[in-house]
Amino acid sequence: MGVHIQNKIRLALGSVKDHASIGKAMIYNHHDRKAFSDIEIAVLRATGHDNGPIGDKYMHEILFLVSNSPGSIPFLAERISRRLCKTRHRLVALKTLSLIHRLLRGGNRCFEQQLRSAHVSGHLQMSTNSFRKCSDPWSSFLRSYAAYLEERVGWAINQAGKLEPVMFNGLEFGCYEEKSVDMVFRKLPKCQAFIDRVLDCSPRDIVPVADSLAQAALVNTLKESFQVYIMLCDGIEILINMFFDLTRPARALACDILKRASRQSKELHDLYETCKRVMENKNLEYPNVQIITMDHVLALEQCSSFMSTSTSTTPPPLSDCLTTLGKESKKEGNGDNGPSSSQFSCTMETKISKVWVVFEEDDGELQVPMAMDIV
After folding, report:
1. Please, which residues have CB within 8 angstroms of residue 94's CB and are 6 or more apart in sequence?
2. Which of 86, 173, 211, 232 could form a Cys-Cys staple with 166, CB 3.0–4.6 A?
3. 242 or 180, which is more confident?
4. How confident is the model at residue 231 (pLDDT cuts 50, 70, 90)?
5. How many CA atoms lie within 13 A of 59 on its CB side?
6. Per-residue pLDDT tens digits for 348-368
């Protein structure tokens, strides 16, 4: 009962603060700054202290005001950052982070690029310092979600509606080239960094998973992770296909990427299974996570080592490496000093020959013709 009363008091105080902030913004609503003041008011209303999710009308209002006010995106970014930095209320912080996420997902390409540039220039900051010293599940979730958005801001939605990584070049962001060595070694680490941030947002033992706002944030995060995971799988396939054509340092880097992918595949599988159990949204189309075992990576490493020490220009097939690993492990397990049985590992096969061979004995008589040939 006492906790319920405290929550009501905090909600009432938060509502008073919201009205005071909105009233202050209206006082400075001069004619030449009317559009900016309207943006600030819309941000305050979208991130109020109430328990409800962000209303679509506030999202539409913000996008409308920004699209009709040139140069207003840095101002919008500053007001969002200020709201997040000053609040001590977890719901307001989560709403502000969710607002950033929805703006990244809901704007057009030009708007996303300007918002991304605002983050690079420092106008948009996703600091959760107010909750850094707290060890409760809520604060931990907020920090993980903020770290995810820090990574997410480096991705854009392409014309096909899919996420793709972007790289910073001056004040412009260019897409990676497709199906090239440079793409693989720059795009795969980007995908893996994204997946790591998703794994940190696991709902396991996190209280706000029951909250509708946290559910919405997790759903959007999971949907985006599905796309990035598929991209990661495609990149891993390209990397393996080109593995034996790489230089020795590049193969070592490829093995490091594959080792990280091996860890992530297991953790991502566990995360999706957990979300299937605890998430209320059962309509998510989870991908089938293919777990990469460390044995596969070690086999590639042994092949790479063999190529580095061998004078042969033809690399051994991966299947041969796996077979060699199995034979060596069996040999080590036997522990005998006798000759290896691998010298006689060829199989004897019996075939019926159609050629009749006639043998003569010393006395000139014919022997029974033989029609069996051992090969």
Report:
1. 142, 145, 208, 213, 214, 217
2. 173
3. 242
4. very high
5. 16
6. 344 444 444 444 544 444 444
Closest to 176 (Cα-Cα) out of 168, 187, 185: 187
DSSP E strands, the chain: 155-157, 163-169, 172-175, 350-357, 370-374
In which residue are the tokens 């854009």 written?
156
Residue 51: per-residue pLDDT: 77
The first and second tokens of residue 213, run together, are 């706002």
Selecting from 1.20.58.150, 3.40.109.10, 3.30.420.40, 3.50.30.20, what CATH number does the domain 175-307 have?
Answer: 1.20.58.150
Asked whether the predicted pLDDT for residue 104 surpasses 50, the reply is yes
Interatomic CA distance for residues 143 and 267, integer angstroms? 20
The overall longest dimension of the chain from CA atoms, in Å, is: 130
Instruction: List the domain boundaries for the chain.
Output: 1-138, 175-307
Task: Say which residue, 137 or 198, is predicted with more confidence.
Answer: 198
Neighbours of 62 (CB within 10 A): 25
Spatial contact of 164 and 156, defined as CB atoms under 8 Å apart = yes
Which residue in 30, 65, 67 sits closest to 45, CA to CA? Answer: 65
The conformation of residue 245, written as its DSSP 8-state character, comes to G
Q: Has domain 1-138 been given CATH number 3.30.9?
A: no
- What are the DSSP calls for 273-284, one per residue? HHHHHH-S----
Q: What is the pLDDT of residues 210-222, one digit of tens each?
A: 577 888 899 999 9
Bigger pLDDT: 161 or 358?
Answer: 161
Residues 87 and 130: beta-carbon distance below 8 Å: yes
